[in-house]
Design goal:
The chain folds into 2 domains: 135 residues, no CATH class; 88 residues, no CATH class. Helices cover 42% and strands 20% of the residues. It contains 8 helices and 9 strands. Helix 3 packs across helix 4. The chain is elongated and about 75 Å long.
Length: 233
């Protein structure tokens, strides 16, 4: 976890508000949430890239292990029942913070295989491949509606998934004309503590665009690119 106030104070100092313009708390919160999601999204692109590279024999220096450690913060599980009509499991409505499904377990025992809609008819018509209670399959459709086969299965499913980071917020209260940090009503970043510097850099990039300050954006972008190159060496 990363302190929202620490990042806020660093951003204000580095943005040099007297010369470049003031970043309001509302603007900062918008930039902060965008930066958090940008970093979070990048984890999954990086996992895909590093999974193709042989791991380092030293576990602590293996980038793939490090990325999986960062993602593990957001692993969660939730049970979902069929909708009222018994047609499908409304995973999208049942899990409001869903980012990515890891796997589906039916009735606490049977792992479900995901297939696409193009495969479905061939599988259902094949005596050898046709799904059973012990070997169910599912398709995902718009709004994360999950259709489970065989269609007569009624028990709950367990969804193991990656959730989205919680929305962050820097909040303050005013005393004698000064805005003071309100820790009670603020929400910290959920990202791994190692992401503090990266958050500052990405927020500065967004601030540079909003303030139409190319120098601020370029400095932050250069620092961001340097960090990316170091991670990939």
């Amino acid at each position: 976890m990363v302190s929202i106030d620490t990042v806020y104070q660093r951003v204000l100092v580095l943005a040099n508000k007297e010369q470049r313009g003031y970043i309001t708390a509302q603007e900062f919160n918008l930039f902060a949430n965008q930066a958090q999601m940008d970093i979070f999204d990048q984890y999954f692109y990086d996992v895909n890239q590093f999974s193709r590279i042989p791991g380092n024999s030293t576990g602590g220096s293996d980038m793939l292990d490090y990325l999986e450690e960062k993602i593990s913060i957001f692993e969660d599980t939730k049970n979902v029942n069929k909708n009222a009509t018994g047609e499908f499991y409304n995973v999208g409505a049942g899990i409001s913070d869903l980012y990515k499904i890891d796997n589906i377990i039916y009735n606490d025992n049977y792992s479900c295989e995901q297939i696409n809609s193009n495969q479905l008819q061939n599988i259902l018509n094949s005596p050898l491949l046709s799904p059973t209670t012990y070997n169910p399959v599912y398709t995902l459709k718009r709004s994360n509606k999950l259709f489970l086969y065989p269609i007569d299965l009624e028990e709950k499913i367990t969804v193991n998934y990656i959730r989205k980071p919680s929305k962050v917020e820097w909040s303050s209260y005013n005393i004698l004309g000064s805005d003071l940090y309100d820790s009670t009503n603020s929400v910290d970043f959920e990202l791994h503590s190692s992401e503090e510097t990266k958050l500052v850099i990405k927020i500065l990039q967004l601030a540079g665009i909003a303030m139409k300050d190319p120098s601020l954006y370029q400095v932050a972008a250069a620092e961001d690119n340097k960090n990316i190159q170091q991670e990939k060496q």
